[in-house]
C-alpha cells in the first residue's frame, strides 16, 4: 500500500530543517532546553494554533494522543511543565527568523510579474488579562501590539513585530525596510515628516491621511477626468505644500485629495482627506489605494478569529511573543500549502479542515472529500453459489 503522509507533515514541508538548525544555532535556541528542542517546540505551538488548543493541559493531551504521528514529525511526547519552561526561556528570534524565511518562500510561490508593489502597514491590539503583569496600557487597551507589513495582492505578511501596547506605531514603521518602486499605505498613526521624506528619497511612494492640524497650502488644482470609484467619489485633487515651520522636513511635491465615501456614518456621508507624493496615478486610483488598506484589517480579523491568539499558553512576555509569532507561521504555512497543492477552497474552510484532520494520513488537496472505501474484490466460484453479505 502506498505510504501517505499526515496533513501536518505536508504542512511543515516548506520548513528547511537544515536552515532552521542554523537559525537555532545562531540564537542558541537549545542552550537551556536540551531535551525539548526548538523543533519540538515549534511543531507543538503550530499544532496548538491549527488545533485550537487553549491551555497547556489540553495541548498536552491532544498532542500525546496522536503519538503514532510523532515519528514522522521528528518529535516526541510532551509534558506541559517542560513546554511552560520552554515558553518562558526560548529566544523569540528563533521563531521570528523562521517566519521571515517562510514569508520569502510564500513570495517566491505567489509572485506575479508586472504586479504593483503595494505594502500596507498597520498594527492590531492584543488585549491581555490582569494576570499578565508585564503588559502596558496605552489608554485604550492593556496588553501588546502586533505590527505587520502586508501585501494584499499575494496575501503575504512581510514583517511582524510584537511590542508593548504603549509603543507608538510610527517608531516601528521607521524600522521597515523601504523598497524602491513600492507604494506604502498607512493611517494617521504613522504621521512623521522625516519618515515620509525617507520613503520619498528611497524612490518609494506613500499614501496616508494628514492630521487635522497639518497646515497645507494649495499650489495648483489638478484636473480629474474621472471622479467616481467603487464606493467613493473624489471631490477635489490639488497639489499642495507644507505651510509651517516644518516645511524643511517635507520638501517634495505633494497631493491632497478630498474623498467622500458612499457609506454613511451617523446618517451622514463621510469625507476624508488623503495625502500622497504620487504625482502619476489618477485621483481615483489614489483613493482606491487608500481603500485597499482595509485588507490588512481583514487579515487581523481572520487571524484573531481562526488562530489561537485570544488565550495564551503562558503568563510571561516571552510566551505571549512566541505564541503570536507561531500564529503567523501557521498562517504562512497554510497559504504556502494552498498554493503548492492548487487548493481552491476558501481560506477559512481550508484552515478548518486542516485543523480537523491534522494528524490523519490523507492527501492535503482532498481534505473536503470523504476517504475512499476499501472494498475487496469479490469472486464467486459458481453463479449458483449463495453469497453471505451484510445488509
Automatic annotation (TrEMBL):
Q: Does the keyword DNA-binding apply?
A: yes
Segments forming domain DUF4372: 4-76
Q: Which UniProt keywords apply?
A: DNA recombination, DNA-binding, Transposition
Q: Which InterPro entries match?
A: DUF4372, RNaseH-like_sf, Transpos_IS4, Transposase_11
Gene Ontology molecular function terms on file: DNA binding; transposase activity
Entries under Pfam families matching the protein? DDE_Tnp_1, DUF4372
According to its UniProt entry, the protein's GO biological process terms are: DNA transposition
Q: Which residues form the Transposase IS4-like domain?
A: 117-333
Query: What does the sequence similarity comment in the record state about its family?
Result: Belongs to the transposase 11 family.
The record's listing under PANTHER family reads: TRANSPOSASE INSL FOR INSERTION SEQUENCE ELEMENT IS186A-RELATED (PTHR33258:SF1)
This chain's protein is named IS4 family transposase
Q: Which organism is it from?
A: Methylosinus trichosporium (strain ATCC 35070 / NCIMB 11131 / UNIQEM 75 / OB3b)
Q: Organism classification, top ranks?
A: Bacteria, Pseudomonadati, Pseudomonadota, Alphaproteobacteria, Hyphomicrobiales
Amino acid at each position: 500500500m502506498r505510504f501517505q503522509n499526515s496533513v501536518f507533515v505536508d504542512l511543515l514541508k516548506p520548513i528547511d530543517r537544515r536552515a532552521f538548525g542554523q537559525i537555532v544555532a545562531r540564537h542558541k535556541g537549545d542552550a537551556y532546553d536540551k531535551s525539548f528542542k526548538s523543533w519540538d517546540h515549534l511543531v507543538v505551538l503550530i499544532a496548538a494554533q491549527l488545533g485550537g488548543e487553549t491551555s497547556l493541559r489540553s495541548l498536552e493531551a491532544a498532542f500525546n494522543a496522536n503519538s503514532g504521528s510523532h515519528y514522522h514529525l521528528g518529535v516526541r511526547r510532551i509534558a506541559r511543565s517542560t513546554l511552560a519552561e520552554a515558553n518562558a526561556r526560548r529566544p523569540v528570534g528563533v521563531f521570528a527568523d523562521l517566519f521571515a524565511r517562510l514569508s520569502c518562500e510564500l513570495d517566491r510561490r505567489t509572485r506575479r510579474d508586472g504586479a504593483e508593489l503595494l505594502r500596507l502597514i498597520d498594527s492590531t491590539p492584543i488585549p491581555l488579562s490582569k494576570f499578565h503583569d508585564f503588559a502596558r496600557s496605552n489608554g485604550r487597551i492593556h496588553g501588546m501590539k502586533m505590527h505587520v507589513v502586508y501585501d494584499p495582492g499575494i496575501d503575504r505578511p512581510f514583517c511582524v513585530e510584537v511590542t508593548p501596547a504603549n509603543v507608538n506605531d510610527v517608531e516601528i514603521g521607521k524600522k521597515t525596510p523601504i523598497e524602491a518602486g513600492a507604494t506604502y499605505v498607512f493611517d494617521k498613526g504613522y504621521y512623521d515628516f522625516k519618515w515620509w521624506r525617507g520613503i520619498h528619497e528611497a524612490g518609494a511612494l506613500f499614501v496616508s491621511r494628514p492630521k487635522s492640524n497639518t497646515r497645507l497650502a494649495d499650489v495648483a488644482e489638478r484636473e480629474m477626468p474621472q471622479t467616481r470609484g467603487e464606493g467613493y467619489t473624489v471631490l477635489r485633487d490639488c497639489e499642495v505644500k507644507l505651510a509651517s515651520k516644518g516645511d524643511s522636513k517635507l520638501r517634495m511635491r505633494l497631493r491632497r485629495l478630498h474623498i467622500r465615501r458612499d457609506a454613511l456614518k451617523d446618517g451622514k456621508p463621510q469625507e476624508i482627506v488623503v495625502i500622497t507624493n504620487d504625482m502619476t496615478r489618477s485621483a481615483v486610483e489614489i483613493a482606491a489605494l487608500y481603500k485597499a488598506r482595509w485588507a490588512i484589517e481583514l487579515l487581523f480579523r481572520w487571524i484573531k478569529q481562526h488562530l489561537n491568539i485570544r488565550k495564551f499558553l503562558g503568563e510571561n512576555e516571552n510566551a505571549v511573543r512566541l505564541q503570536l509569532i507561531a500564529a503567523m507561521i501557521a498562517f504562512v504555512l497554510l497559504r504556502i500549502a494552498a498554493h503548492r497543492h492548487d487548493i481552491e477552497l476558501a481560506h477559512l474552510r481550508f484552515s478548518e479542515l486542516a485543523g480537523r484532520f491534522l494528524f490523519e494520513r490523507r492527501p492535503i488537496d482532498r481534505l473536503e472529500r470523504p476517504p475512499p472505501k476499501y472494498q475487496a474484490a469479490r469472486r464467486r466460484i459458481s453463479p449458483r453459489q449463495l453469497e453471505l453479505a451484510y445488509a
